[in-house]
Amino acid sequence: MQEKGSISIHTENIFPIIKKFLYSDHEIFLREIVSNAVDATQKLKQLASMGEFKGELGDVRVKVSFDKDAKTITISDAGIGMTGDEVKKYINQIAFSGATDFVEKYKDVTDKEQIIGMFGLGFYSAFMVAKEVEIVTKSHQEGSEAVRWVCDGSTSYSIEKSDKEGRGTDVILHIAEDSEEFLEEHRISQILTKYCKFLPIEIVFGTKEETVKGEDDKEEKVVKDNVINNPTPIWAKSPSDLKDEDYLAFYRELYPMTMDEPLFWIHLNVDYPFNLTGILYFPKVKDQLDLQRNNISLYSRQVFITGEVKDIVPEFLQLLHGVIDSPDIPLNVSRSYLQSDANVKKINNYISKKVSEKLQGIFKNDRPSFEEKWESIGLFVKYGMVADEKFYDRAQKYALLKNVDGKCSTIEEYKAQAEVNQKDKDGNLVVLYANDPALQDGFIQAAKARSYDVVVMDGVLDNHFINTLEQKLEKVQFKRVDAETADKLIDKDEKLESVLSEDDTTKAKEIFEKAIGDSAYAVSVDPLATDDLPLSITRPEFMRRMRDMQRQGGGGPMAFMGSMPEQFTATVNANHPLVTKLVKAENEDEAVALAKQAFNIGLLSQNMLSGADLTDFIKRSVELASK
């Protein structure tokens, strides 16, 4: 018996579009065909569990093989198979999904979500790489005859009887010349590992040699089928059935080249109002500038979809690692990427909420551990507080400020302790911070001498985080510890008396302006504490912050302000003995030399002295020490 006919083509499923343009990446063909085989196997297991299939299941693994000489790739399953009529219905009528039919028939079955279901459009992805496709199949139904279907990629096909004995389906792809890269073992293995690593039915590809202990504990080598997937990933299991070592082992499975263990993880497991499972890991942060996105993989019923999760995962959490699996995420017809809808937004919000709850739980139950990990955790928390209003509201309860001595405080705790001594004349709480504690140590020590506390803000996001806190917190200002001299950092309207007369003050200003010789430095002579430097270099907080943000890629006004010429204030300490000495000096050159030395000390304290100026400073220091 042989029958010939034409595949039904409708305006909504034009065959050339499916064949040429539906899939952006040709390698997806293997994912689709293997997924169909898994689908057919799942259906058979479902029928067996319901008592509608009474035969022996036997070996239900899906097998992938290739023949380089014959230029074929074969995907075989022992699933439900198809009758001749079913082949005509599900294969010839494009976009008529067998899974849709099956789900409708068994819509009351509780685990129907395990059915992958895309037999129809997915099958035709084979023609992106194959010049001809064969289907040899036999239904599980008793008394069924096997059939062989052949199509060369046109709308013509042939179907005839086959001598296949066992149930199931073999899909044989005759690879086209321009796609022979897919006949290489490593290429097939790479695709299977990428897309099918966690499919729920074992996938066999080739064999592997293992060393086992035989009789008398002697080691011997045996050849076994090479199963390329883990059909029961932990995200599909109940959290109550898992231990810490299970999560750590799975992390190593996902990222075999990563040496560090994650800080902690969140197991997502919800079935209403949408179905979502997954594991999100918080990685240990070594270098904030070297964090990579795209470490979260999106799956749909254990089929890999994409590594791009920008819509479903909040932006600030895309630096996490892990897996998300949901059948409720709307995918484009080729299952290559997700499409936005209300469910995507709900899932996005849910993930943000679950992460916040996890962090809140750790903070509440084990604050010492939370503080210990804050260097890594803080990056995600700060990013979230800057990017997401709802997350800010949740996270402000456990976000920490860490001072230069390593003490951690929540925002409210810090406000309570700092307002005792760090309020200015207008009632503003001034939070002093250092972005480079080692470099700014002199300024930190001067602040500490006045009983001020200094927090560390040295992360890549801290400029944005500071701006967010200033906008959210009432009457709170942040000021970098080297933005002013110590007595001016917090303006309490308290002024020291100057030991210089008005004429001496004017003379000192003139001497320093001559010594500096640079209009970028505005010279100011002010009475400061005698233990302050003779001259301090500061940059206005606003201009400095704009320049820092511009360097990090800020646009608009930030870019404009950041590109303006540098402006500094050179504050001369009127009460320092050195200043008194140079004002009283009879030799003007000697006075200018002392002023130059004081200016260089100010530059050195800000790490702004280098090159020839640094060399000259060292020479002058040696000469002065020798006198």
UniProtKB/TrEMBL annotation:
Which SUPFAM superfamilies does the record associate with it?
ATPase domain of HSP90 chaperone/DNA topoisomerase II/histidine kinase (SSF55874), Ribosomal protein S5 domain 2-like (SSF54211)
Q: Where is the signal peptide?
A: none
Task: Please indicate which superkingdom the organism of origin belongs to.
Answer: Bacteria
For this UniProt record, the keywords arranged alphabetically read as follows: ATP-binding, Chaperone, Cytoplasm, Nucleotide-binding, Stress response
One example of the protein's molecular function in GO is:
ATP binding
Write down the Gene3D superfamilies for this protein, in alphabetical order: 3.30.230.80, 3.40.50.11260, Heat shock protein 90, C-terminal domain, Histidine kinase-like ATPase, C-terminal domain
Binding-site residues, ATP: 32, 36, 77, 82, 97-98, 169, 335
**Pfam families per record:** HATPase_c_3, HSP90
The record ties this protein, via PROSITE patterns, to:
HSP90
The similarity comment for this entry is: Belongs to the heat shock protein 90 family.
Record-given protein name? Chaperone protein HtpG
**Organism per entry:** Fulvitalea axinellae
